Amino acid sequence: MELQRLSETRTGAGNARSGSAVAFRQTTQVQPLYRHLKRLGDVLGAAIGLAVCMPLFLLIALAIRLDSPGPVLFRHRRMGRGRRPFHVLKFRTMVNEAETLGPEVTVSTDRRITRVGAFLRRTKLDELPQLWNVLVGEMSLVGPRPQSFSFLPYYSDEDLAVILSVRPGITGPTQLWLRNEEEILARQDDPIRFYVVTLLPEKIASDRRYVQTWSLRTDLRILALTLCALLRIRPTSHAQLEERAAVLTEGTAGAPASARVYEKVV
């Protein structure tokens, strides 16, 4: 009920964004050669990543099975390029059938998260199985995050037309900036409302901007920054979390924070 009510509130904002449709219809008119090069890079990167990480996959799978009952992998239905649904793969980080035990919006202190799962989520190792999604053509190494069906009502038709014109990605500008999203949400009095009213609009704007300004140079920079972020496994300070939450809140009240987010990352 809460999500439905917030969806109705967000509809007006979504319709307002669609008024800027003319500007965004220029998006994704990328030369076919560049698209082919991006796909070639995805295939090579995913194949190499899967081969190199296979021993790590086995260790993670063993740790998950020893830590809690249930499958090793978690499959979640998402909306992909061209509005085609697919199942995004992740290592399971919560108790079995956690989706039936609580909200889809997850905070870092969620009791459904297992001990091994907490480590996997903090280090982002739970995302590694998505290399398979990339290899089979459902995802890209870099792109907007796969869209959850639960939150599609908060997107305008123009949002979906732009964002779903490309393959969703494992990483991207939005994912890098909000890599501590669960910790930010855990500090809110109403995490669901904060996500829908504050975080989601910024995610949408940032994803649209990525699609609009896509280039191979941008993708390479994002991949390099992602690797640096993965190797720099340090807890985010309270001050940093407060700063990011403040930037997002200011963006909702005034100019979109997504522009600053995008510039910080890209």
Describe this entry's structure for a reader.
- Helix 1 runs parallel beside helix 9, helix 9 packs across helix 11 and helix 9 crosses helix 12 (257-265).
- This protein has one domain (8-265).
- The protein is built from 12 helices and 5 strands.
- By secondary structure, the chain is mainly α.
- The chain has a 3-stranded antiparallel beta sheet. It has a two-stranded parallel ribbon with strand order 3-5.
- 35% of the residues are buried.
- The longest helix is centred in the first third of the chain and has 36 residues, at 32-67.
Name its key features.
8% strand; two-stranded parallel ribbon; 5 strands; 266 residues; 3-stranded antiparallel beta sheet; 12 helices; mainly alpha; 57% helix
Q: Main beta sheet: strand number and arrangement?
A: 3 strands, antiparallel
What share of the residues does DSSP label as strand, in percent? 5-15%
Kindly provide the radius of gyration, computed on alpha-carbon positions and rounded to a whole number of angstroms.
18 Å
Protein structure class: mainly alpha
Strand order of the largest sheet: 2-1-4
How many helices? The count is 12
SSE topology string = HHHEEHHEEHEHHHHHH
Give the averaged pLDDT, no decimals: 82
